[in-house]
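Annotated sample (chain length 316).
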Amino acid sequence: MNSEAKIYVAGHRGMVGSAVVRALQSKGFENIVTRTSSELDLTCQSDVGAFFQEENPDVVVMAAAKVGGIHANATYPAEFGYENLVIATNTIHSAYRSGVSRFLFLGSSCIYPKMAPQPLQEGALLTSGLEPTNEAYAIAKIAGLKLCEYYRSQYGVLFHSLMPTNLYGPGDNYHPENSHLLPALIRRFHEAKEAGLSEVLVWGTGMPKRELMYADDLAESVLFALQMENPPSILNAGTGVEHTIREIAELVKKVVGFEGELAFDSSKSDGTPRKIMDVSRLRDAGWSAKVPLEKGIELTYPIFLAEQSQGSLRAK
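Output written by the structure step:
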């Protein structure tokens, strides 16, 4: 991929898409195409088809998706399934029809079976059942990556997929109920600190393990994958390091400066007991994550504070 390529980054206002745009710009890419959701409805097939015919991008990075944490996924499975399915099918098919030379589809580690052997290898896909709380989202993402695989196999186009681990960083969603683990903890500890509370309650037992990667690390892995001449159809992207939810909560507590107690509500679902990616394929190809978790939280918290003070905090 040369620096003159016309690159469409779908979902450029989200945490992942904005990180990809920053990474591209830092590497000298200037011909970057973006559209807000009000400018282009990715769930409308005719609008998506017209956009691709008009813009005719060379490369697509599909970072647009309806995302959320355990509560949101469990409460709104129809929306998570439908919206992510149609976004995937509309963009992949329209990209093929318009002659896009390279399409990188971003999925999620939740595509892998709930009880798959750890670390999660790309070959574990579809070997057993999914985690029920985010099954709808996972199925939609599996459909997208498989569609990329089928178009590549049948038509010879370079459509491939990157499966990130759990992400956090600038532009994250801080909704009090629908956000992911780390932004939820940052907001909860910050508000408890501001209110002078003596305790912060965290959902679950604190025992499950999670792998977390800073969004700008993922963006670097996206650029690396786009430079690979003949990448595998699916590549995992992660840090290869895991922490218990208790350990993650303790790190957030430390960075935020909350001095009260930490408690756990074991009546709430833990979700998947353990989820760490096998990142050996990407590592063997020459790429590894650079930002350790505590450093990433230290980078993220001031951005949260700035967005909050400016009234631009994302909380939907």
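Annotation: The chain is about 45% helix and 15% strand.
Annotation: Residues 77-98 form the longest helix (22 residues).
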